[in-house]
Amino acid sequence: MLLKKLEMQNIRSYAHDTIDFSEGVILFEGDVGCGKSSILYAIEFALFGLGDLNASFLLRNSASSGFVKLDFEVNGKNYQVYRSLEKKKTVQQGECFVIADGQKMLYTPSEMKPAVLQILSFKEPPNPRSQSIIYRYAVFTPQEEMKKILEERSEERLQTLRKAFGVEEYRIARDNSAIVLKDLREEAKFLEGQTAELPKLEEEKTQLEGKIASLGKESALAAQKTSAAEEKLSQAKKHFSEIQSQLSIINSLKSELPLLKKRLEEKQSFLKDALEQKGFLEGETGDLQQQVSEIKIGEIDYSKTQEAYKKIRGQSSALANEIGALQGKQRDYAQLKEKGLCPTCGQTISGDFEKHASELAVQVIDKQSVLEKLKDEEEDLAAILEKAVQQNALMERKKDLDKRLEKNRSDLRALTQKISSLHEEIPSLEKSMAEKQSVFSSLQDLEQKAKALEKSVLDAEGEFKSAFSDKTRLETQLNDVRQRLGELQARIAEKQQGRQKLGKLKERKTWLEEHFIPSLSAIETHVLAGLNREFDLLFKKWFSLLVESQDLVVAAGEQFEPLVEINGYEHSYQTLSGGEKSALALAYRLALNALVKSVSASMQENLLILDEPTDGFSKEQLGRMRSVLNELNCKQVLLVSHERELEAFADKVFKVEKKDGVSAVIS
Q1: What is the number of alpha carbons within 13 Å of residue 352 lying toward its C-beta?
Q2: Torsion angle defined by CA atoms of residues 35, 39, 45 and 47, in that order, rounded to the nearest 10 degrees
Q3: Cα separation of 137 and 126, whole Å?
Q4: In this structure, is residue 637 part of a structural domain?
Q5: Dihedral, 329, 334, 337, 338 alpha carbons, nearest 10
Q6: Full residue range of the structural domain in which residue 298 is found
């Protein structure tokens, strides 16, 4: 893996910054606390998530959100990973994605780590709450964690290194083998219990086979009896069916004769009622004809008379109105005459006024004479109109009588036709009834014979049912025993398979106990010893490059503990000076890095990150760092240090500065 570009926003003390990485040795140089290590945490967060870190540790205090975007290369293929942080009630991870071959894949925070581990070909459990073991020991180990490894107890250190070297898989294989062995023991114990009853089951099988033979004989005898009873029943049914058709005639006549009698009585009763009703209708029809002949209708035209009456009344009303108007003028003239003056012009009334008053009086008299004649005509027309109303009432009466008369005549015609039909039907019914009664009388003797035959059929059916029941019972018992035998045979076969399986289980159990598990332990011991020898050589090599002393010698113990020897005497790691401790920690770190790379195929040529590796180094030791860097054989090395002397060894130097609480990377 080679880093290409890192972009951070609101991460630790960084507001926003972008770093472009090149190959070679890259130095991040700056004062203590300026934000150098934050860059390393940002890289690890982008790849593997929070792990055992708290989200609030990474997010800038004043920010509500932040992100890290990292571009890197693996085996010539470019990738980009992105992780974000959001502050809600607490700080937590937000959007995550990976871009590969131009394709963007969105992930949840827990899904992101397995995807990155697959890209890097890191074969380790994808636990989102822990850091990547391979990354921590092959790429980047923080100084504090390296000190912890050196100072912790031998058992704990060995357990940590077993995970880093991949040797832990042997222990896991042993543990899994122990689980399988336990399951084999439990299954073997279960199968021993299951197969213990096999002799008893085989004895029961022999008993059931004998019972099947006995029931088979009884069932065959019952089948013969059933066949004989069935033949007897068949003959009885045959004789009974021969007279069955005649019996059906008798049964039919028994139901038909009462119905025929009832129909005959109903028709006779209906004929009597019809004759009575016919007499009544004939009498009523005569009365109606008499009433119609007595009605005399005049020739007055009601409509014309009514029209003439309305016209005369209208003329009278109009003439009365004219007379009223003329009489009103007369009253006006009389009032003017009394006053002697015209109310309009104020002049004295002349002789012409008298003339007009006289003419008006004559008009009133003439019109009153005409009105009296119109009144006389109106009275005459009113009398004629009254007669026309009476005439209309008589016409309606006649129509009603004619309608009733026509209905009576129609009812009489229908009744006459029905009476005629009944006169034909009644003799026919009487004849049919007599014929059927004669047939019924001739067949009555067959009933006794049929009853005897029916009894013989019932007796034969009883015998057949009894025989068939015995046959069915025996067959059912036989089938039940056969089924029990089949089930028993299946159980015996299962037990026999269990016995065979038990033998195989014991073979596998012996192989696990005596061969596989001991072999795993031996292989693990051998592999761990080989790694220990290689680690010891590397540890000594790197320490000798950093510290040139004939008196001070270091080595790796059997459990990878650092051994210190001064002038031939063993000393504690804690007795070393600060620079010697840092040199020992760095040598241990580089030896560990080399071994982890050797067991991880994806880390052969890769990135190496060293955080404050020269803390406490003398100038002479700082000068020896050039030889160390040349020997590393890494395409890309990231150094984080506050030592300016390291600038001479770096291919690229980034200055990290912090101002007003905000860090910035200056190239």
Answers
A1: 2
A2: 180
A3: 16
A4: no
A5: -140
A6: 259-441
Task: Round to whole Å and give the CA distance between 20 and 11.
Answer: 17
Condensed to tens digits (0 to 9), the pLDDT of residues 52-100 reads 788 889 999 889 999 999 999 988 899 999 999 999 889 999 999 999 9
What total of structural domains would you count in the chain? 1
Tell whether 500 is covered by a domain.
no
Helices (H) and strands (E) in the chain, counts: 15, 14
Global model pTM greater than 0.70: no
| Domain presence at residue 470 | no
Structure tokens at 115: 């995807």
Inter-residue contact 583 to 546 (CB < 8 Å):
yes
Could you tell me the maximum CA-CA distance found in the chain, to the nearest angstrom? 182
What DSSP assignment string belongs to 406-432?
HHHHHHHHHHHHHHHHHHHHHHHHHHH
- Which residues, listed in sequence order, are joined to residue 71 by a DSSP beta bridge? 5, 80
Query: Which residues have C-beta within 8 Å of that of residue 173, sequence separation ≥ 6?
Result: 520
Write out pLDDT tens, residues 484-518. 989 888 888 888 888 888 888 888 888 888 888 88
**Would residue 391 count as lying in a domain?**
yes
Q: 605 φ, ψ to 5°?
A: -120, 110
**What's the CATH code of the domain at 425?**
1.10.287
Within 8 A by CB and 6+ apart from 56, the residues are 90, 91
Report d(CA 167, CA 169) in Å as an integer. Answer: 5
Strand order through the sheet with 552-556: 552-556, 562-566, 569-571
Convert 447-473 to b/e letters by CB count within 10 Å (16 or more is b).
eeeeeebeebbeebeebbeebbebbee
> Degrees (nearest 5) of the Cα angle 553, 556, 562?
75
